[in-house]
């Protein structure tokens, strides 16, 4: 077996010394101390079990054996770096492409802001955007079909040991009604007053569907749902057309603001979503995800992309 004193790090230090022929210059290049370089060379020589250097005064002079080792060490270190790079690329790490998943509702303001900042940091990066429900996006992240997702973590079971979670903002849930509705109130809305009304809803798996179900459980009645849809914009269009009422996060206020009215809920129905960036912990050093995390922190602080 290869002696445990022979490591890739020591071979890299050895090559730096062979190229500079000076311990101090090799240490400066590698950001190490001269003592660390000298110790690495000494223990590498012990591991090889033959002389590599002779002392000339205070300097080390490479022997022919050292030059032979250097020829092979360049191949070893170079091949190792290439293998690591190919392995990372195979795993989707460090590519010039980021597969980002998001809720439909976040494409209004959050996603454009994050992408704009991300492109300033990494202009060469291609961003593939996938929209879907909380459940669908989390499933795609778990199977590595997506690199990162923007979802409501309030409505999802997420393993903090496996996934990194970077909160962006919190959002309250409102009752949405057609602007022409006679049931619109200026203060908080009581769901009991809408017991006889028709509702539209998202399908199961969406973050807002979870809140919708919970609110009516508290109200003590099952709403009459006339249709279920797969995206929040379609649901808003149905509300605007007078098909029914629904529950929506506050971030949707800007859509159809003149034709749809969002009313705050009474205290006992009030709920809040936490929107966050989620990605695999074992990829947290990926340059693309580092840049996205930095932009997410800026967004959470209310800062604009620089």
Strands, count: 11
**CA-based gyration radius:** 30 Å
Helix content: 25-40%
End-to-end span in angstroms? 53 Å
- How much strand? 15-25%
Report the structural category. alpha/beta
| Helical segment count | 9
Order of helices and strands: HHHEEHEHEHEEEHEHEEEH
Main beta-sheet annotation: 7 strands, mixed
**Mean pLDDT, rounded to whole units?**
90
Low-confidence stretches: none
Shape: rod-shaped
How would you summarize this macromolecular structure in one to three sentences?
By secondary structure, the protein is of the alpha/beta class. It has 9 helices and 11 strands.
Labels describing this entry:
rod-shaped; 9 helices; 306 residues; two-stranded antiparallel sheet; alpha/beta
Q: What can you tell me about this protein's structure?
A:
With 306 residues, the protein is α/β, with parallel strands linked by helices. It contains nine helices and eleven strands. The strands form three sheets. Strands 3, 4, 5, 6, 9, 10 and 11 form a seven-stranded mixed sheet that branches. Strand 1 and strand 2 form a beta hairpin. Helix 5 crosses helix 9. The longest helix has 27 residues. The two termini are 53 Å apart. The model has no long low-confidence stretch (mean pLDDT 90).
């Amino acid at each position: 077996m290869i002696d445990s004193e022979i490591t890739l790090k020591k071979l890299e230090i050895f090559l730096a010394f062979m190229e500079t022929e000076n311990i101090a210059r090799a240490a400066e290049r590698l950001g190490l101390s001269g003592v660390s370089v000298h110790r690495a060379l000494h223990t590498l020589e012990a591991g090889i079990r033959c002389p590599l250097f002779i002392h000339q005064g205070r300097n080390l002079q490479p022997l022919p054996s050292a030059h032979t080792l250097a020829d092979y060490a360049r191949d070893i270190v170079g091949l190792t770096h290439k293998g690591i790079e190919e392995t990372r690329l195979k795993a989707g790490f460090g590519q010039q492409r980021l597969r980002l998943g998001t809720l439909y509702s976040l494409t209004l303001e959050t996603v454009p802001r994050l992408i704009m900042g991300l492109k300033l940091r990494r202009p060469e990066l291609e961003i593939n955007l996938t929209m879907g429900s909380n459940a669908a996006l989390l499933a795609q992240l778990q199977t590595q079909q997506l690199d990162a997702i923007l979802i409501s973590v309030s409505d999802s079971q997420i393993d903090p040991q496996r996934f990194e979670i970077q909160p962006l903002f919190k959002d309250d849930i409102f009752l949405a009604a057609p602007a022409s509705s006679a049931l619109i109130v200026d203060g908080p809305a009581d769901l009991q007053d809408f017991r006889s009304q028709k509702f539209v809803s998202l399908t199961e798996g969406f973050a807002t569907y979870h809140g919708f179900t919970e609110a009516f459980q508290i109200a003590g009645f099952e709403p009459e749902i006339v249709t279920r849809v797969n995206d929040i914009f379609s649901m808003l269009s149905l509300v605007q057309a007078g098909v029914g009422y629904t529950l929506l996060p506050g971030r949707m206020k800007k859509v159809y603001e003149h034709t749809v009215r969002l009313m705050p809920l009474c205290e006992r129905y009030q709920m809040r979503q936490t929107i966050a960036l989620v990605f695999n912990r074992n990829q947290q050093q990926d340059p693309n995800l580092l840049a996205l995390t930095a932009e997410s922190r800026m967004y959470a602080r209310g800062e604009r992309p620089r």
